[in-house]
Amino acid sequence: MKKFTFLIMAIALMACNSNQTTSKTPSIEDFDYTVDKFEDIEILRYRVPDFETLTLQQKTLVYYLNQAALEGRDILYDQNGAYNLLIRRIFESVYENYEGDRESADFQNVTTYLKQIWMGNGIYHHYGSDKFTPKFSFQYLTEILKTIPAEKLPLAEGETIDKLPSAIWRIIFDPAILAKRVNQAEGEDLILTSAENYYGKGITQQEVEDFYNNLKDTSDTQPVAYGLNSKLVKENGVLTEKTYKIGGLYSAAIERIVFWLEKAATVAENDAQKDVILSLIEFYKTGSLVTYDQYAIKWVADVNSLIDFVNGFTESYGDPLGMKGSWESIVNFKNLEATKRTAIISQNAQWFESNSPVAQEYKKDKVKGISAKVITATILAGDCYPSTPIGINLPNSNWIRAEHGSKSVTIENITEAYDRASLGNGFTQEFYWSDTECELVKNFGTLTDNLHTDLHECLGHASGKLLPGVDQDALKAYGSTIEEARADLFGLYYLADKKMLELGLIPDANAYKAEYYKYITNGLMTQLTRILPGKNIEEAHMRNRSLIARWCYEKGKANNVIEFRVREGETFVVVNNYEKLRTLFGELLAEIQRIKSTGDFDAGKALVENYGVKVDAALHTEILSRYKKLNIAPYKGFVNPVYSAVTNKEGKITDITIDYSENYVEQNLRYSKQYSVLGK
Ligand code: ZN
Predict the structure, then answer these.
(1) What whole-number distance in Å separates Cα of residue 74 and Cα of residue 315?
(2) CA of residue 589 to ligand 1 center, whole Å
(3) Distance 457 CA to ligand 1 centre (A)
(4) Residue 89: predicted pLDDT
(5) Which of 206, 214, 278, 554 is the most buried (most CB within 10 A)?
(6) What is the CA(120)–ligand 1 centre distance, in A?
């Protein structure tokens, strides 16, 4: 999906031929995190702290990997829908060339639609996957299109706009046509009713399932990820895979990715990392999923390099059947200071396990903390842009995870941007009881939130054991909620432990209260902002937070540990006794571990159904209306910094500079010119 010739790439590399040196990262206080806002989206920017401390070789490696990341952008657009690239190009052309009234409401609506397309990497919402509804008419669009010179539109030479496929207009304006990118409604043909572009026209779900069931060998203990890197099409009545590779589907973009990866391999930090990059190149050249697994195994084993990356067909949320990998990339380097934090936690894993309030028979005799690292992202691309995860755990192959492990990362410069951008939005002032709670969360909220995540990931999920003979799926549909509650409670319990002070992980004995207040208020109240009126809580993490908060509220009632207070008709949560709350977390942790260890389905079900699912309708209505008046965009996207290679007279790179000033529109228009070779 990226378009650019190799010639232009060479120019881009040489363009910044000055003596400027990499500047210091702007401080948190001086940084402007907010970039843009439209519909339900807010666009933020993020800092890349300590980039200037990398060596020239490391910076150059980051630069090449970043370029390889940006080259895949159009692949995702095409995977998300067969008409996305064409529609994006039409609207970009209108945006750049329309000379009429740009301030009119109609044109503003055209601009918003284009911003939505960039956010969704196509004409569907990145999260809900529903098609965007234009707030301008077909008639208006046709009128302004007529004013754009034909050579500026995505047309072949000599063609006029009536050459554009007529289906395009119906796809944009008729809500019934290709309505949803990924349809998950039970009972419907999920392939025929989804608009994603992983399957050719007219192919049924049954045909897809039969095709892949035939490929699979059920006795294979190391199965490849069938279908991951291909589009399934029907040719002359026969189903066949079009593989994403050099010489195959998306070849032009993949060639560009490989071009930069080959450069990256020349400046790798060590042989292991070089081998990882070369294996990925091999995969892109052959399309072989066996090679892909070999690459993944090497990637998991490389834990010593400072710089790391994801680049490829990775997650399968965009395929209703969960097989096809959407293209994504993220480049990063280890946050050494914060990774010390996770290392300390992992090294002390046994102490935490031995001292937990869980009954002895459910504890692990020998616990090994999961090695996790905290990273600083340098670029977000493909399915990680503009919307991005704050943590990643890969690879997805089950047998590789079991035999070789996985890498778990927290992307701290992204969480920083989320946190800082939310400071001024009025949320805490609206929902937190008093200045005391607001100050507590302002001072210690980010730190304790990160620590809670570390404890959850490194220790919580790794703690405890099943009694012999207990089926690991015994809790069935309640299993994931119980598992998340277990990990959360482990973290909550220990946040308040003096061991945290001893280990130097927490600066103040009261810091934990920030997370406690935030967690309980969220579980009892504020997470309801994400539930539609009349609905129950369905998502496992949200159920778990409700379960913990409401259980502690009920059990602490006699001692007034947690209280709902009403002030001028508005409800607030007040925590009256933090020490007692910690005891309650410990008690619930012990019970949840017992449920897990013994596979006590009935007790697990009762906890989840009684405390995790139902919503107090009156409170829900109140929270939704208070939230609405804050006018906070529920979804965030990001712009990337701009990296430039500084070269000397001989064309040798002497520095990589980083600039944060590009806005959302500038960035996407530039990407569409610089990294766009598909479908032209
Ligand atoms: Zn978890």
Answers:
(1) 16
(2) 15
(3) 6
(4) 97
(5) 278
(6) 26
Cα separation, 545 vs 452, in Å, equals 13
Range of the domain at 151: 81-195
pLDDT at 8: 34
Residue 253 lies in a domain: no
What is this structure's pTM? Answer: 0.84
Kind and range of the H or E run holding 544: helix 540-555
How far, in Å, CA of 277 to CA of 307, rounded?
A: 12
Hey, what are 175's tokens? 């809500």
Give every CB contact of residue 591 below 8 A, 6+ residues apart in sequence: 603, 607
- Establish if 263 belongs to a structural domain: no
C-alpha to C-alpha distance for 395 and 293, rounded to whole angstroms? 9
What is the per-residue pLDDT for 82? 96
pLDDT on residue 369? 64
Domain count, the chain: 2
481 CA to centre of ligand 1 in angstroms: 9
Residue 270 lies in a domain: no
Distance from residue 480's CA to the centre of ligand 1 (Å) = 9
How many angstroms is it from 461 CA to the middle of ligand 1? Answer: 7
Confidence (pLDDT) at 22: 52
pLDDT in tens, 117-130: 999 999 999 988 99
SS3 annotation, 456-499: HHHHHCCCCCCCCCCCCCCCHHHHHHHHHHHHHHHHHHHHCCHH
Q: Are 124 and 132 in contact (CB under 8 A)?
A: yes
**466 exposure class (CB count in 10 Å sphere: 0-12, 13-18, 19+):** middle
Cα 490 to ligand 1 centre (Å): 11
Q: Name residue, tokens 């060339």.
A: 97
Q: How far is the CA of 655 from the centre of ligand 1 (A)?
A: 40
Q: If you measure from the C-alpha of residue 453 to the centroid of ligand 1, how many angstroms do you get, rounded to a whole number?
A: 8
Span from the CA of 579 to the centroid of ligand 1 (angstroms): 25
Give the residue among 143, 139, 159, 163 at the shortest CA–CA distance from 151. 159
Which residues, chain by chain, have CB under 5 Å from ion ligand 1? 487
Asked if the structure places residue 150 within a domain, the reply is: yes
Which residue ranges in the chain fall short of pLDDT 70?
1-23, 369-371
Where a domain ends, among 173, 195, 217? 195
Look at residues 601, 621, 636 and tell me which one is the last residue of a structural domain. 636
